[in-house]
Amino acid sequence: MHFTRTTVLSSLALIASAQDLTSVIAENENLTRFSELISQYADVTSPFAALNRISVIAPSNAAFDKLQFSALGPAFANNDTDIIRSVIEYHIINGTLQTSTLTSSPTFLSTYLTNDTYSNVTGGSAIGAVKQAGNVIVLLSGLGSRSTLTNPDIPFEGGTIQIVDTLCVPPEGFLNTSRVFNLTAAAGAVAKAELSDSIENARDVTIFAPNNDAFTRIGSGLAGMSVEEVRNIIGYHVVNGTVNYSSMLQNNTQLQSLSGRPLTIYKGGNALYVNNAQLLQQDILLSNGVLHVIENVLNYNATSATPNPQIPSQPPIIPGTSVFDIPFTSDLPSTETTAPEEGITTDASGATITDEALASSTSSFSTSRSTGFAVPTGRSDSGVMAAVVGGAALLAAAL
Ligand SMILES: *[C@@H]1O[C@H](CO)[C@@H](O)[C@H](O)[C@H]1NC(C)=O
Ligand SMILES: *[C@@H]1O[C@H](CO)[C@@H](O)[C@H](O)[C@H]1NC(C)=O
Ligand SMILES: *[C@@H]1O[C@H](CO)[C@@H](O)[C@H](O)[C@H]1NC(C)=O
Ligand SMILES: *[C@@H]1O[C@H](CO)[C@@H](O)[C@H](O)[C@H]1NC(C)=O
Ligand SMILES: *[C@@H]1O[C@H](CO)[C@@H](O)[C@H](O)[C@H]1NC(C)=O
Ligand SMILES: *[C@@H]1O[C@H](CO)[C@@H](O)[C@H](O)[C@H]1NC(C)=O
Ligand SMILES: *[C@@H]1O[C@H](CO)[C@@H](O)[C@H](O)[C@H]1NC(C)=O
Ligand SMILES: *[C@@H]1O[C@H](CO)[C@@H](O)[C@H](O)[C@H]1NC(C)=O
Ligand SMILES: *[C@@H]1O[C@H](CO)[C@@H](O)[C@H](O)[C@H]1NC(C)=O
Ligand SMILES: *[C@@H]1O[C@H](CO)[C@@H](O)[C@H](O)[C@H]1NC(C)=O
Ligand SMILES: *[C@@H]1O[C@H](CO)[C@@H](O)[C@H](O)[C@H]1NC(C)=O
To answer: What is the whole-number distance in angstroms between the Cα of residue 240 and the centre of ligand 5?
Structure first.
């Protein structure tokens, strides 16, 4: 008896795709550094070799060559094994990624980085995957990092291996991430509102962070605001308990802010808005959720503000005139208020901001509770209405 050509080919294909993870990596000339890393951390990686329906994001040798320029450089240089473990876990996707399923709108994939020292997101820290012009696949990770896929969809018995040119960076908290995106005023306002601790330690958040221009344009109106007033404003920019990537935001979606008042999403043309503020940068990953940069400071007294998509930028909604100095920068606990060099975020001043901010805002949740920052749980129409009314009453009482 003899096999037809197609039978022989498909059995060869089966043999090829049935190879185990460790062998496929070990036999790839571009993965010798990654292969060494996973054998050094066999206690972390061997359980993954036995899993099905996963994808391994495998950094190439070229990716390791430029590691010193990455936010992960210091951790590898100092052999910080705890962080390196978290980096490895972040490179394992729960589910098999086939790049043919990706589109120009980012897909967010769950990883095996679930250790709550590094991740406070249901389902583990996420990696974004997006198809760009020329069918180039880019992975989006923490601190605005981007990795390009150089060799996609390499099969092994439990899923696929995706080779990237740059290591993916596990997402960090709002304070560290805000530094990379020059969100100095927003971070200062969070510190002034004494909400650093509760925002940093919350699970599953969506944050709408106005850029510095948004604060500077209304600076005179912000000057002299009390802690409570700033807390009311900041609380209107944070959604607690939901991680809403831009792809989940539909026209007229309502979200319940930490302040108790609703936010409304609008779509107009290709733009997305929250109330009357356009989302300028979407889907910045945080260790505890997602951040979208917006063009205006939102006003909890103007919950029905809508955008005019015909004009390129929406007018401010909090009264005030432009100031020269960026508001709230003096509220940052560190004197370092300038944006860091691109990708360098692990300097000592970053640690200072975080630690002091956390120390200066102990039990801010109970404080905020007494000033009306109740988080409604109702999700039905009537529940939301009751929550809005209740939140408004509590806010009014606090003012
Ligand atoms: C290794 O990388 C180079 C450059 O990207 C590529 O040309 C080559 O095909 C890769 N080798 C394998 C086995 O994927
Ligand atoms: C890193 O630290 C681990 C555990 O302390 C040790 O086993 C390993 O040899 C170190 N690696 C390097 C490159 O120094
Ligand atoms: C989580 O991370 C911390 C700090 O790196 C580590 O001490 C701990 O063992 C980890 N927990 C698990 C379950 O891996
Ligand atoms: C991986 O995904 C499956 C199915 O979605 C889920 O049941 C499982 O808990 C996930 N594992 C981890 C470690 O998140
Ligand atoms: C967010 O919601 C959770 C669960 O309802 C709650 O425990 C936590 O205190 C809330 N965080 C803030 C900052 O309000
Ligand atoms: C994760 O979120 C929960 C709920 O808000 C909080 O109690 C816990 O302290 C957070 N963990 C970390 C490591 O921030
Ligand atoms: C940060 O924002 C301020 C005010 O908008 C601007 O002057 C400065 O150039 C920005 N820095 C960077 C690195 O983008
Ligand atoms: C926002 O995310 C939550 C889960 O975190 C989800 O239940 C909710 O449906 C999402 N909202 C939208 C508008 O997709
Ligand atoms: C979004 O909803 C508003 C009404 O709230 C409507 O005027 C607008 O046309 C809708 N936009 C899109 C893109 O459907
Ligand atoms: C919101 O309205 C209250 C009550 O009228 C007022 O005291 C407060 O200043 C207003 N806040 C803003 C940001 O407009
Ligand atoms: C913020 O950065 C500092 C310095 O690199 C680091 O120690 C800290 O763990 C980071 N915080 C978060 C929440 O990632």
So the answer is: 6
Q: What is the pTM of this model?
A: 0.83
Task: Name the residue of 252, 254, 266 whose CB sits within 8 Å of the most ligand 9 atoms, as the mutation to test its pocket.
Answer: 266
pLDDT tens-digit map of 212-255: 999 999 999 999 899 999 999 999 999 999 999 999 999 999 99
CB 359 within 8 A of CB 188: no
Summarize pLDDT for 323-350 with one digit per residue, the tens: 999 999 999 976 444 444 333 333 222 2
Inter-helix orientation angle 184-192/348-359, to 10°: 30
* Ligand 9 atom nearest residue 267's Cα: 13
Residue with the nearest Cα to atom 9 of ligand 6?
201
Ligand 10 test: best mutation among 301, 303, 304, 318, most atoms within 8 Å of CB?
301
Residue identified by tokens 């106005």 is 210
Ligand 6 atom closest to Cα of 117?
13
Identify which of 138, 151, 130, 46 has the alpha carbon closest to the alpha carbon of residue 92. 46
Q: Between the CA of residue 329 and those of 266, 312, 347, what are the distances in Å? A: 31, 28, 19
Q: Is 148 in the pocket of ligand 1 (CB under 6 A)?
A: no
* pLDDT reported for residue 319: 94
Ligand 5 centroid to residue 382 C-alpha, Å: 22
Which ligand 10 atom minimizes the distance to the CA of 233? 13
Ligand 1 pocket, 29 CB below 6 A?
yes
Residue 65, both tokens = 């060559």
Q: What is the dihedral of CA 249, 250, 253, 259, to 10 degrees?
A: 20
pLDDT at 18: 61
- The structure tokens listed for 60 are 């190439």
List all residues 6 or more positions away from 16 whose beta carbon is below 8 Å from its beta carbon: 155
